[in-house]
Design brief:
The protein contains three helices and six strands; from the N terminus they run H-E-E-E-E-H-E-E-H. The chain has helices spanning 5-14, 53-59, 84-97; strands spanning 21-26, 29-34, 37-43, 46-49, 64-65, 74-77. The longest helix is centred in the C-terminal third of the chain and has 14 residues, at 84-97.
Length: 110
């Protein structure tokens, strides 16, 4: 089931204080980026955040689940979606721990 654009807009609005947030549509679902770092996914109208040690300590007892079949587990955020301060802090902590994105080399012309 594809995620609802209104749900995605709600989540992006909830975490807008965590920096410049972008949601990119991918196969009916959405990838969430901050500082060009992929930090989360929205799949089936559920928010998944990449697991980090800082995020785990902040959440304390995270619920983990794969965002789609065959994916690695992520933190499934369900009960704190209305708490924009908590959610923004989790995103800031997560993004800080994630590595910088790899720079893609331009393709050589034949």
């Amino acid at each position: 089931m594809a995620s609802d654009k209104k749900f995605v807009e709600f989540i992006v609005d909830q975490i807008k204080n965590a920096g410049t947030i972008n949601a990119k549509s991918m196969f009916g679902e959405y990838a969430l980026y901050a500082e060009d770092k992929l930090f989360g996914l929205i799949c089936d109208n559920k928010l998944f955040i990449k697991p980090t040690e800082g995020g785990r300590a902040f959440i304390k007892h995270p619920l983990e689940a794969p965002p789609y079949p065959g994916a690695k587990n992520s933190f499934l955020i369900e009960d704190k979606l209305e708490n924009w301060k908590w959610l923004s802090e989790l995103v800031r902590i997560t993004v800080k721990e994630l590595p910088a994105p790899k720079i893609k080399k331009p393709k050589k012309k034949p």
